[in-house]
Amino acid sequence: MPPKKKRPVLHAVTVLALLGTSGYLTVELRKDEQAKAPSVQAVTDEPNLESSTGQQGGKQTWERLKNPERTVLRGAEGQVLATFTDNARTATLRGPSRTFSESANTTSKVVTEDWVRLMPEPWTKGAEKEKWFKDWFKEYYGSQEDDIFAYSFQYVQGAPVKKDDEGIPYAGDAVFGPFKPDGVDRLEQNDFYDYLGIPYTFRDGTTMPARQDRYRALDCSGFMRMIWGYRARHPLMATNTAGDGLPRTADGMARSKVGVDIIKLQGPAPWYTRPKNIDVLQPGDLLFFKMDHRTGNHMDHVALYLGLDTDGHRVFISSRKEVNGPTMGDKGGASRIDGNGFYAGLLRSAKRL
Questions:
Q1: What totals of helices (H) and strands (E) does the chain contain, helices first?
Q2: I want to staple 1 with a disulfide (CB 3.0 to 4.6 A). Which of 98, 229, 326, 336 is the partner?
Q3: Digit-coded pLDDT (tens) for 274-308
Q4: Which residue from 338, 314, 294, 150 is spatially nearest to 231, judged by alpha carbons?
Q5: What is the largest CA-CA distance in the chain?
Q6: Model pLDDT, residue 13
Q7: Among the residues of 103-211, which ranges form H helices?
Q8: Residue 15: per-residue pLDDT
Q9: DSSP 8-state symbol, 212
Q10: Quick check: bond before 38 cis, omega within 30?
Q11: Percent of the chain with pLDDT over 70
């Protein structure tokens, strides 16, 4: 809105054995991490909007920083009020405090003053002096209009249905996908137009039909395309190869030239290695994970980084099979990228759109 070489032939029994081992290890890792997760308690799921901290008094200054190249706006006391990264459209603005939680699946809560928004153009050094930015900044600095974080929590369990002027539900509790014939695993490749239940024509003219058996379903990358593309209007590719914008899959997104690679893939394929330092991350970044033996060197999962929860853990929200939809919960592995948990150990790269 992805010269052929001869490969050794594996016996069918060997292949099945490898796949079975892969699935078993993945399930056991998830079970182990789930056992460590805290028990669920009732918490509020209502945003706690306080007086705006976005309207700061006193002198404000613009400053250039490196790694990655970016510009920050500082308040009179040196506090960061906004961050803009070169070649990225994502802006992180200081605003009213909000509380995000999901009582059905976790005790974790995120209380944040970060508001993540999409600028109309990628940031460049000195853009604070340009008219397009001044107009945009005047409208959104301190605004309480829904941002990327607000969009993302409009698809978790129990989220109320929201409909557009034509009566099409564009928000509300989403599932990951229907069961496969085995009744155990769930079907993937569920994009935002499947959730909407309508065909969608992309900028290159490609029209993708919605599948009724996938209605109100969003897989992990479909969830990102819903909030960043359909809701925030970032350009989208129809597939990983057709059109321009954000690709269709987690692997396509991870390897795309769109945005800025904040943490690059490191180490040997196909598993690569976990990054040693994740301090460079900021709320709104896309996180990519390598989770499955069967997918070669592909990244298998994508999530939205939320920042620190009230326990000091770095947490994210994503759509996953175990919860059957978008969640920041603990089922199938706590949504954390610090420590030694399931997802923390499988984090591989990050991107800022």
A1: 7, 15
A2: 229
A3: 999 999 999 999 999 999 988 999 999 999 999 99
A4: 150
A5: 72
A6: 37
A7: 131-140, 148-152, 192-196
A8: 35
A9: G
A10: no
A11: 83
Read off the pLDDT of residues 246-259 as tens digits, 9 standing for 90 and up: 999 999 999 999 99
pTM summary value: 0.84
Distance CA 341, CA 242 (A): 36
Please classify residue 311 by burial: count the beta carbons closer than 10 Å to its beta carbon, then call 0-12 exposed, 13-18 middle and 19+ buried: exposed
The residues, ordered by sequence, that sit 6+ positions from 345 with a Cβ below 8 Å of its Cβ are: 274
- Map 78-132 to HEC letters: CCEEEEEEECCCEEEEEEEEEEEECCCCCCCEEEEEEEEEECCCCECCCHHHCHH
Half-sphere exposure of 282 (CA within 13 A, CB side): 25
Residue 330 scores a pLDDT above 90: yes
Q: Which two tokens stand for residue 326?
A: 């978008």
| Calpha distance 68→210 (Å, rounded) | 39
Torsion angle of C-alpha atoms 71, 76, 82, 84, degrees rounded to 10: -10
- Whether residue 305 contacts residue 224, with contact meaning beta carbons closer than 8 Å, is answered with no
CA-CA distance, 238 to 247, in Å (whole number)? 7
Residue 40 token pair: 């669920």
Closest residue by Cα to residue 74 from 119, 134, 128, 146:
128
Interval 198-209: pLDDT, tens:
999 999 999 999
Q: pLDDT value at position 185?
A: 75
Please say if the pLDDT value at position 58 is more than 90. no
Place of tokens 């970044």: 285
Q: Report the distance separating Cα 135 and Cα 152, nearest Å.
A: 26
Give, as one character, the DSSP assignment of residue 146: -
Identity of the residue numbered 6:
K
Q: Which residues pair with 322 in a beta bridge?
A: none
Residue 188 pLDDT exceeds 90: no
